[in-house]
Design goal:
By secondary structure, this protein is an alpha/beta fold. The chain has four domains: about 90 residues, Orthogonal Bundle (Helix Hairpins); about 140 residues, Rossmann fold; about 180 residues, Rossmann fold, CATH 3.40.50.720; about 150 residues, Globin-like. Helices cover about 50% and strands about 10% of the residues. The strands form four sheets. Strands 3-2-1-4-5-6 form a six-stranded parallel beta sheet, sandwiched between helices. Helix 2 crosses helix 3 and helix 5 packs parallel to helix 6. The chain is flat, with a radius of gyration of 33 Å. The relative contact order is 0.06.
């Protein structure tokens, strides 16, 4: 509520109460009726209220001159006070935050978005389009996005998202997710700290997830390791919109398709964060692609990076990603897109005049400059059909113009404009923290295992796509993902950011696999029993399952299934950007760690 609305409402209430006291006092001393010469206190109160709220004539007025004058005064004051009170309440409900507070009381498991910049508003729009309950927090009351977000159906509260009072007003005790999308990393970190304090005192059955935007990619890469450690009532995850934009761009316009008869040769124009992320993600995808002769060659991915600081950026990339050189042949050209050399674009062709580039990505900060560069390169490549992808900031404006140009005729069909901000600010990308990525991977593995065994969705209702899973089933997969760290700790291993691109092939010893499989079964048993499941035929509706028994009593097939899931942990982690880190060397003479099974 703004200050004016709050002050008006308080003043109106105090005025009405004061009038009530005056009316009772004057009525007690001055009101009379001929047939009732003596009035009780309650009679006086009644006639005072009638006088204040009625504009009538006749015997409701006192018959003394003083009484009539007092009645007239009270009646006029009552009308004015009621009008003032009505106007103040209207201001409270419509002009201030009062109506939104009333709506908020009905919210549960809602989304709180902190920050209504362009990215925050896009997220609010996307969540509202999905029918989610959204509360947006914005410190600038004059921000035009406030009115737009309210029109979209979101509740908007004005204030600093780092303040406990505002988070409490936003219903954080009942919220499911808080997205910190403020202007800088430090502000987002402060929001996360406040959210964590609230999570410790919540009584809800579901955890509070805080998804924090980290602007600096290197810091984001390091902080993501913390995500897997978050358990209990509070879960912390991080996202970077540049990386999300790069992944979205490559999903829509992949760097290569398989099978490949030759290694792709990419041209990246612009060595900013997006360009760097495209190089690394493309190289990782090429490294992880199938290696059979039918699917790809044994050559390295080739990338040409054009930027004034291209050589310096290439050195940084090789230092930060040691495996890059083994997968990608990265060459540079120190050139500005305004140079005539760039517009002649002789670097696109070899000495025989043959085009050497298979795909172009233009990743410049300024949309206008990017459009000029994309059109220049497309003009030189038009006869070859090589796709030129212009990564633009917004979907509207120049992106629409470029799309219109492309639709004008076949001569522009290989020219593509992609508005990255809209694609990056999507719930699945922002909410897709490490636990979510691992949980989805675990479910995909579950589907593959059951499909290979011929199990159908009719006999097992959990054999559906992730988005169709009941929330309790998705939460179970998340809990399994978060438990990976504990299983690895039991065999003296840890989780680290991925630096070895071959880490997905990491192998555990048979003893380690057995131990971790037992631990996973124990975790699952505890989870099922806490939810009221019992031993019996497979029946999700009645919460019975034949595998709710100690590890040693499981059938060999079920034990093998658990072991296979554990063996796949390195691949799961690599897919999310992590790897298994062994804290101590594994020796054949070392005894395998053991646990005592928990037969709850």
């Amino acid at each position: 509520m703004n200050g004016y609305g709050k002050n008006s409402l308080v003043l109106a209430i105090l005025s009405a109460l004061s009038l009530l006291v005056v009316a009772c006092a004057l009525g007690f001393y001055h009101f009379e009726k001929p047939e009732t010469p003596t009035l009780t206190l309650w009679d006086c109160f009644w006639w005072a209220m009638v006088t204040v709220t009625t504009i009538g004539y006749g015997d409701i007025f006192p018959h003394t001159l003083g009484g009539r004058l007092i009645a007239l005064f009270l009646m006029m004051a009552g009308i004015g006070s009621l009008s003032f009170l009505t106007a103040a309440i209207a201001s409270f409900l419509v002009g201030g935050d009062g109506w939104q507070q009333i709506r908020l009381r009905r919210f549960k498991r809602h989304i709180i978005v902190c920050g209504l910049g362009k990215r925050g508003l896009l997220l609010v729009r996307a969540f509202c389009a999905r029918g989610a309950q959204v509360v947006a927090l914005e410190h600038d009351e004059e921000n035009e996005s406030v009115a737009v977000a309210r029109d979209l159906g979101a509740v908007v509260l004005v204030g600093d998202a780092r303040e406990r009072g505002l988070l409490k007003n936003a219903g954080i005790e009942r919220a499911q997710t808080v997205i910190a999308l403020c202007g800088n990393d430090s502000s987002n970190a402060e929001v996360a700290a406040r959210v964590r304090d609230f999570a410790a005192h919540r009584s809800t059955s579901f955890p509070l997830i805080c998804s924090v935007h980290i602007v600096e990619p290197d810091l984001w890469g390091l902080l993501r390791e913390w995500e897997i450690a978050g358990r209990g009532a509070f879960r912390l995850q991080f996202f970077n919109l540049v990386d999300a934009a790069a992944r979205a761009l490559l999903d829509e316009h992949p760097a290569f398709t398989l099978p490949a008869t030759s290694a792709p040769h990419l041209l990246i124009v612009g060595a900013g964060r997006l360009g760097r992320s495209l190089i690394v993600n493309s190289a990782r995808a090429w490294h992880d692609a199938p290696t059979s002769p039918e699917s790809r060659t044994g050559e390295k991915l080739r990338c040409l990076l054009i930027d004034r600081d291209a050589e310096k950026v290439a050195e940084i990339l090789h230092l930060r990603h040691p495996e890059l050189g083994a997968t990608c042949e990265l060459s540079t050209l120190a050139l500005d897109t305004s140079d005539s050399v760039f517009h002649r674009a002789e670097f696109l062709f070899d000495e025989n005049g043959k085009c050497r580039i298979s795909r172009v990505y233009v990743c410049l900060h300024d949309d206008a400059t990017g459009l000029v560069a994309a059109l220049a390169l497309h003009g030189r490549l038009r006869s070859t059909g090589v796709p030129v992808v212009a990564a633009m900031q917004e979907e509207s404006g120049l992106t629409s113009l470029l799309r219109d140009i492309r639709g004008a005729g076949r001569r522009f069909e290989s020219l593509h404009a992609v508005g990255l901000m809209e694609r990056a600010c999507q719930p699945d990308l922002v909410m897709g923290g490490v636990p979510e990525l691992l949980a989805r991977a675990l479910h995909e593995r579950y589907l593959e295992e059951n499909e290979s065994e011929g199990v159908s969705a009719e006999s097992n209702p959990l054999l559906v796509a992730w988005d169709e899973l009941p929330e309790d089933a998705r939460e179970s997969n998340r809990a399994q993902a978060l438990h990976i760290g504990e299983k690895l700790a039991a065999i003296e291993c840890d989780i680290a950011p991925l630096w070895d691109w071959n880490a997905r092939t990491h192998e555990f010893s048979p003893e380690e696999i057995d131990l971790m499989a037992r631990l996973e079964h124990e975790r699952w048993l505890a989870e099922r029993f806490s939810l009221g499941w019992k031993l019996g035929p497979r029946d999700p509706e009645n919460k019975t399952n034949p595998n709710l028994r100690p590890w040693d009593e499981l059938s060999p097939g079920v034990r093998d299934w658990n072991c296979n899931v554990v063996r796949a942990i390195p691949a799961f982690l690599a897919g999310a950007g992590f790897q298994v880190l062994r804290l101590s060397p594994l020796s054949a003479d070392d005894p395998a760690p053991t646990i005592e099974p928990n037969h709850r």
